[in-house]
Amino acid sequence: xxKFINKTDDFLKESLEGFGKAHSDIIEIxxxxxxxxxxxxxxxxxxxxxxGGGSGHEPMHGGFVGHGMLDAACPGFxxxxxxxxxxxxxxxxxxxxxxxxxxxxxxxxDIMNFQMGAEMYSQKSDSIITNDDVAVEDSTxxxxxxxxxxxxxxxxxxxxxxxxxxxxxxxxKLGEKVNESAGTMGVAFTSCTTPEAGKPTFDISxxxxxxxxxxxxEPGRKREKIQSSKKIVGxxxxxxxxxxKPENNEKTLLFVNGMGGTPLTELYLVYDDACQILKTKGxxxxxxxxxxxxxxxxxxxxxxxxxKCDEEILKHWDSxxxxxxxxxxx
Amino acid sequence: MSVNFLISQAKNIQIVIDENASEIEVLDQNIGDGxxxxxxxxxLKLVVELEDTIKDMPIDKALNMIAMKVLSGIGGSSGALFxxxxxxxxxxxxxxxxxxxxxACEMIINGIQAMKDRGKAGVGExxxxxxxxxxxxxxxxxxDNNEIEQGLNDIIKIAKDRMLAxxxxxxxxxxxxxxxxxxxxxxxxxxxxxxxxIETICKSVINQ
Lengths: 330, 208
Fold this sequence. Notes:
The complex is a heterodimer. By secondary structure, chain A is an alpha/beta fold. Helices cover 32% and strands 25% of the residues of chain A. In chain A, α4 (150-163) crosses α8. The model of chain A has no long low-confidence stretch (mean pLDDT 95). Chain B is mainly alpha-helical. Chain B has one domain (3-206): DhaL domain (Serine Threonine Protein Phosphatase 5, Tetratricopeptide repeat, Alpha Horseshoe). The longest helix of chain B is centred in the middle third of the chain and has 19 residues, at 101-119. The interface between A and B is large, with 38 and 34 residues.
């Protein structure tokens, strides 16, 4: 394993310290229990949005704390859900009287810990569960689909509504709409290595890819020989469109997300392939997002998310945002 | 059961888990994301480190202290489930009196029931509950029939059989559920660590 590490046990704390210093104009870091909150508390009566999950997906979620997105984020250990005391402390710190909305990715550990956090928190709260990964069949035989990159879009769009004074109920409803209107699928060329394990999470040959990979290196639909970008992108989009079934000429947001180890040059190439393929299928790409937003440590690979957009979603996507990882309009 | 008993068991378990760490890590990498063993090891270390803080506390307070430590220190599914386990043990009535074998069984049964409710997993879903639920059922029998040594030997066997049985299961809970058929042929790492914990405690009680 080659990583920038001093001591494995200090990995998360030292990384959070650096994050706090680098973005001290926007956020602040609290330790024991760990959470990241906005530097300036927002106005009274705004619904507070809190997300969290295992670390290793940076900039998700800490990089999305700030105006127009989250009020706080709770980072767990690498790929491990955060604990209820973090959620409780974050909620107590940011709640301004309009209630707390927890944004949770659909994994057993995250669900259990957020549920306990909500039970321990005495004020009004509710939660949204994201499950946009179309690689996994949603059936009685699974925990359900995984929550992956569309979580970023949920946080941006609901964050905007909360900033506009939307109620807890309305924020939850919009979040669920965005989640249901989005589909994601990823591929991995290489594994990731957690600092604690010190060796790759899975073995993969230099000419193979994992099609439908999860953001912790969980296996996807199948292991295949690597193909041209157009073929890979086409297969991903087929799976997403099969699930989302967009109308002809429906407006969409196309989000090409890097897994951490793939350069932007490749991500833009993927974006171009996706635009061309979607055009032939009569789908209009209205908004774009390209970059490393929901990563899996140093994994090489990418995911594509397609979000069907109505006017409400478009308006809240365009509104100003100022966080460490996403900033426009202000 | 006493606070000293809890601490000495945590130390015993720590040794056994460390001895089997690489096996559990490989099992988890086969079907999960490889973090289970580190979570368990971190949790045990935290509990053992609590010794000086909790050794003179009443057992319910000590259990709650352990629960909070495990919840916040482990994270992930294991943190929530084991935290719930200790919290529910602490809620068992009449813990201020001497805790005999039957009372200890009742505490563990309560703890396992709460884990079952929290994780919403039953038997046959390829999780640690495949080991813990049958163990809890057997504890109820032993408690009613008062055959401690034979009963604990039976539990060691039940835990091992149920752990091995997870090998042929398809997983429906947790990260491994995303694998579908591909999870077949691998023992569940949570079932293996739970079985090791149960075996360690039973053996130590038998030898007392």
